[in-house]
Amino acid sequence: MIITSKIDTPLGILIAGAVEDGICLLEFEDRKMLKAEYRFLEKYLQTTVEEGSSKHFRILVSQLNEYFSGKRKEFSVPLVTPGTDFQQIVWQELLKIPFGTTRTYLEQAEALGNPLSTRAVANANGMNRIAIIIPCHRVIGSDGSLTGYGGGLTRKKWLLDHEKRYSGKAVDQSLF
């Protein structure tokens, strides 16, 4: 069973989903793709979604609170990330982007050894179902612009500003 719970954050309500082995969903409550993500997870994991509590939620809430207060730069809560082999590789590469920094979709594709896969990388980023922890918000357009974020560009800007503030790096307002 996938257990879900709501988590109040400075950016709004996040919906967390957990299975026995870890967190499988962390999305903003108003994300348009949320129902489709529920259906995918139910089908892929061959189970149902039900509201409740999970041992993983205590860790998740604690780590999110530390992140939002500027005390946490990496997460250690266990994750379950169903997806294609390519998506898994892209999501693992996202986890390598340091707190407070950004990369372009092209740089992500190059890090994967295939600079021609920019669109596929962007698509896989968009299929990430674990916001903030798998930091797809750290990927920007080649021209430095904010592009594509399931939680909305206002939240993406907030997250990038937040991370810059707590990483000791200056926030470049010209990008926004």
Count of alpha and pi helical runs: 6
Structural class based on helices, strands and sheet pairing: alpha/beta
Helix content: 25-40%
As for the CATH topology of the largest domain, it is Arc Repressor Mutant, subunit A
Q: Would you state the CATH class of the largest domain?
A: Mainly Alpha
State which percent range the strand residues make up. 15-25%
Main pleated sheet = 4 strands, mixed
Q: Superfamily at the CATH H level of the largest domain?
A: Winged helix-like DNA-binding domain superfamily/Winged helix DNA-binding domain
**Can you give the mean pLDDT?**
93
Q: Regions with pLDDT < 50 over 5+ consecutive residues?
A: none
Oligomer: single chain
The sequence of SSEs as H and E is EEEHEHHEHHEH
Taking Cα atoms only, what radius of gyration do you get, to the nearest Å? 16 Å
Distance between the termini: 41 Å
Number of domains: 2
Judging by the overall fold, what is the CATH architecture of the largest domain?
Orthogonal Bundle
Instruction: Give the tally of β-strands.
Output: 6
